[in-house]
Amino acid sequence: MPKTLIEPFRIKSIEPIRVTTRAERERMLQAAQLNVFKLRAEDVLIDWLTDSGTGAMSSRQWGAIMEGDESYAGARSFYRLERVIRDLTGMPHFIPTHQGRAAEKVLFTAACKAGDLVPNNCHFDTTRANLEYLGVEALDLVIAEGLQPSLVHPFKGNIDLARLEALLHKDAARIPFGMLTVTNNTGGGQPVSMANIRDCAALLHRHGKPFVMDVCRFAENAMFIKMREPGYENKTVREIAQEMFSYADGATMSAKKDGMVNIGGFIVLRDERWLEPVRNGLILMEGFPTYGGMAGRDLEALAVGLEEGMQEDYLRYRLRTAEYLGERLDAAGVGFVRPTGGHAVYIDARTVLPEMPVQHYPAWALCNALYLEGGIRGVEVGSVMFGKRLDDGTETYHSMELVRLAFPRRMYTQSHFDYAAEVIAEVKDKAASIRGVRITRQPRQLRHFTADFEWV
Length: 456
Prior knowledge:
Elements: H1 22-31, E1 46-47, H2 59-65, H3 76-89, E2 93-97, H4 100-111, E3 117-120, H5 125-133, E4 137-140, H6 161-171, E5 178-181, H7 194-206, E6 211-214, H8 218-228, H9 237-246, E7 250-254, E8 265-269, H10 275-285, H11 296-308, H12 312-331, E9 344-348, H13 349-352, H14 362-374, E10 376-377, E11 379-381, E12 388-389, E13 395-396, E14 402-406, H15 414-429, E15 437-441, E16 452-455
Parallel strand pairs: 1-10, 3-4, 5-6, 6-7
Antiparallel strand pairs: 2-8, 7-8, 9-14, 11-14, 12-13, 15-16
């Protein structure tokens, strides 16, 4: 086969995007208080803020939408999706929610209490916030390699099993369950090996603790295992995913990622230990157990999307796309988390802005610069997202300053990636002119979504 990367799909419908001038973008960013979350989407040329719910659905999914059963209770669409999820996960109890953070909220409310501690490789923003809101400590135990952006390791998302075991000996009474996030979004979209999943589950079970996975990008993780872990090269992505799920006692999923839909999520449970409080919480916060905040048409689209998200031609293209952009950045001398992840490329802002102090939020500053230079919207994964302002007015800072460029599924073509690579290289060349920021207003939880900033 030729080496040229092609999209394994044909475009059937288009959405125009607007090209803006530098002067326009300066005005719009200032009006947004230097927070790209507050920009209007129509004012963004390439929107890589998130891959969550932003992708294009297939003709099969649009056809399935017309079959949606909108009955309040016992809808046919629920049972169709339940069959798909049971076959994939092997877990009998399926609880739909409208998205991943709702699944987290419902499960954590049922399973946790104030003073508990939940270990994970890395909690992403809403997972951490939902636990901390309940008074639970969210502890990250990713391996040391996962905190070194330039270091190449095939499974930088792995949890540090020695640290987890020490924690279980020390604080077992505080731990209601252990978690793994696959792929590890906080650390660069990095995969977790099957061996690490298996050993993590065994370790938790030896200590009598349930094992829960955050599986919003399970298909990408399974594809990495197929490509990188000996013994799995001849297995299908479905078979690998089924083995991943076989070790877990439960899982939460934002289906807006590898479910290939614009809205939706779920909880799956292997036994009934949390089932009744989960269902009660679902009814209180989301909806009846057979729709859980989703329309019947959304349930139908997800049933198709879970199957399409495991297609290996698509996954090979998706992972190669991230790798391709990484190669372009490498040629331009821009540092990033290596190897590239599945759903995004994470620029290491410290390689672009090595002199900017962390107090001026270099990754946030780089996000602003990418928008000003070329209309590209990414998201900061650094000290705004994961740092905190303490009650005494001091700040905590994150160990890494990353800019995540997360790619919507089946949305952009190779020319968009080539354009983005040129913009990023231009930003690096102009790094001396990039200004830092300070926070002028912030909420207590998830401050990056709505905080206001000003130029330093």
